[in-house]
Design a protein that fits this description.
heterodimer, A: 242 residues, mainly alpha, Four Helix Bundle (Hemerythrin (Met), subunit A), B: 56 residues
Chain lengths: 242, 56
């Protein structure tokens, strides 16, 4: 197991494996997202309170869940990188940040577009909305910190500490609707009985599609990270055809 | 349900379609930008290797 693990973490091996798994993530992701879109926009029944407007749910909720899921992966990877000094783990964290930041932006923007017709406002300084905005700033801070430090190893370590400190925001986002009297409604996805399965399944399909999508984009970015971190190795010469 | 009814989305079209459009645009952009980053990394690495070759 450990031998396999070390072999996987060796740059040339990882680069090849990553290249091979990308289509296995990418194509199912595309199919699931298209199927989820069809399910959410056409097949799912409309909400008795919010009418057709509720269909924003199918892009908003998967984005919001992914914004936290990607941050968790980023923080775990950063922690592994710090403790075991594993470069590949730092690369996973670094490659996740831009994807996570964009998905968080999606969660905020679609929430805003949903909030306007339902609450009558684009934005409120409410616990859920504010903590999600802080999540976006954590991602952006992480990216900015990395790019401000030239030495890659120091950048890895400093940004990993930031990623780990930011973890405290995740339970705050999750429980914000429970702890505070929030404008935002409570969780419907993980609350059994809050939503019928006819309404819920497209969101689950979409979420699975988003996860595979994240995997595919992550592996492409990881390949770039591996090449960036590699200094004049024979395999790189061969890979680039020189 | 007719097609125009579908696009009308019960009056929520002006909020719903931008939300879907934005998310899809972000998804497409992230694929493009990751692939671009990989291409750029490969190009830079090739350039670096070439420079080291001419120096030695």
């Amino acid at each position: 197991m450990w031998i396999w693990f070390h072999k996987l973490a060796s740059p040339p091996h990882f680069y090849r494996i990553a290249g091979r798994v990308i289509p296995w993530f990418g194509w199912p992701a595309l199919l699931l997202i298209l199927f989820g879109l069809y399910g959410g926009l056409v097949l799912a029944p409309m909400d008795y309170q919010q009418g057709e407007g509720f269909r924003i749910f199918y892009v908003h909720v998967p984005s919001a869940i992914m914004s936290m899921f990607i941050y968790s992966i980023m923080a775990v990877a950063a922690g592994i990188g710090l403790i075991w000094r594993m470069k590949l783990a730092h690369a996973v964290a670094a490659a996740s940040a831009p994807i996570g930041a964009w998905i968080t932006f999606c969660a905020l923007a679609t929430g805003s577009l949903w909030g306007k017709p339902m609450w009558g406002t684009w934005w409120a300084w409410d616990a859920r909305l504010t903590s999600e905005l802080i999540l976006l700033f954590l991602y952006l801070g992480y990216i900015a910190l990395r790019s401000s430090i030239e030495d890659p190893q120091r950048a890895d370590r400093a940004s990993a500490v930031l990623a780990l400190v930011g973890v405290i925001n995740l339970p705050i986002i999750h429980y914000s609707v429970v702890w505070w009297n929030s404008l935002h409604q409570g969780s419907t996805m993980f609350n059994p009985g809050a939503m019928s399965i006819q309404m819920k399944w497209p969101a689950l399909v979409m979420l699975l599609g988003f996860m595979l999508y994240y995997g595919a984009v992550l592996f492409v970015r990881l390949r770039a990270e591996v090449i960036r971190r590699e200094r004049n190795a024979a395999w790189l010469r061969e890979e680039l055809g020189q | 349900m007719s097609l125009s009814e579908f696009f009308y989305m019960g009056g929520y079209a002006e909020y719903l379609w931008p939300a879907y459009g934005l998310v899809l645009a972000v998804l497409v952009y992230n694929v493009w930008s990751a692939r671009h980053a990989l291409k750029e990394a490969r190009r830079n690495a090739a350039r670096r290797l070439q420079m080291e070759e001419t120096r030695s």
